[in-house]
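User: Okay, second chain of the day. Same drill as before: sequence in, structure tokens out.
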Amino acid sequence: MPEETATLPKIPRVNLRTPAVMAAVQAQVESHYRSEVVEKLRGAGGTLLKGDVKVKLAKQFGFCYGVERAIDLAYAAAKVFTDRRLFILGEIIHNPEVNEQIRALGIKNLIGQNAEAHVDDLDSSDVVIVPAFGTDVTTLARIKEIGSNIVDTTCGDVMSVWKRVRQNAQDDMTSIIHGKASHEETKATASRAMSNGKGHYLVVLTLEDTDYVCDYIRHGGNKQEFLERFLGAYSDGFDPDIHLNRVGVANQTTMMRGETEEVQRRIMAAIRDRDGGKAEQNYRFFDTICGATQERQDALRVMLDEPMDLLIVVGGYNSSNTSHLAEMGEQKLPTYFIRNASRLESRDRITHYDLHEKQEITTESWLPKRPVTIGITAGASCPNNLIEDAILRLYELHGIDKAQLLA
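Assistant: Same drill. Structure tokens below.
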């Protein structure tokens, strides 16, 4: 695949982060996403008690620096390039309300229903925003070849993973990537695992996948069965009989740290069982879990040790880091993963996302009688205003309005 460093026409850079532009952006972003209620709750140590209804907010939640930066740059592009067509390669982040705001700025999505980027109609006057997840090297190279202006909002943590998988490729090591093969970030990372035509990758999602790979590393097996099992999750020309000889484990940055560490441990053990004293030269891994993802998981873990009746997780259903928060909650207490406050329909009815069915479902009689303690958290792609809406709705269901909360 083409590499970003390939010789391509140089595109003049435009500084979007001038003081005047960023001041205007900050005001606009705050008007869309700021929350007075969340700030009050944070200032009160994360606990808000009104009457006999207590809401507890995780210590770390919501937008991370990388998400804030991506949104700021998208808003800045809309303010600076007023005479250009503006496009984005997919969703800026995995939150439907935020992506709707991006569309409202006049920024059009280049990713079609088939998940392919439609870039051939671009020209050199167009502006293309690369989202926080990044994009694959082939798409990026084509945009550079066309000469369109690129506003790259890729998260630094994601680029750290790219550095590791490129090194794997240079050293003739296959990158085993713990993540979702269909996720934009994993696709972008996988494309970099074949640096300058070298290297291969294999994506594993579950520990069951990992154990299957480990068994193959130890004993070999049916190659055709292997390739059918992981169809769509490995590089062109990947041969498990050859390309599992030397491997480096990487990950989608928003996975659960404990699970990624277990993937690393199991693959390392399999390599050692197969290779004995030569194992160290045939295996490597790096800690590339996103810091913000880990902080939100750690904060929720602490909160789950405190007395609560239920947990509300707010965010986009396709957000990997938010889904993991809901998974953590489910293990301890009734947990409801909602897109926004509209899903809190009444005291007797809630519509929420079922991680196992992979669709919204409705639950009756979900809200316990008072006194009640409700935990709330949100992933790194959820803005504070949506968290506020959920908090206000929870109190509204108990006859308490915003003025009373802020009094």
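Residues 35-64+291-406 form a domain with the Cobalt-precorrin-4 Transmethylase; domain 1 fold (CATH 3.40.1010.20).

User: Thanks, on to the next one.
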